[in-house]
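Translate sequence into structure tokens.
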Amino acid sequence: MLVDPNAPFFRALWVRVLCVLLPLAWAVFELWSGSPFWAILFGAAGIYLGLALFVWRRPDA
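Result follows.
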């Protein structure tokens, strides 16, 4: 895995939300500025982080 969702750094909800929203917001900015390649890259990173930090994460960790 690229990110360890059970690391102590990701314990706080606001950290996980911020780590997902920042790449997605940057993807929107890149798409708005006319760079679809970077928008897809950052969008994929945001989606991956969302899955890793909210879906695949063990709730007891």
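Note: The two ends are 16 Å apart (CA to CA).
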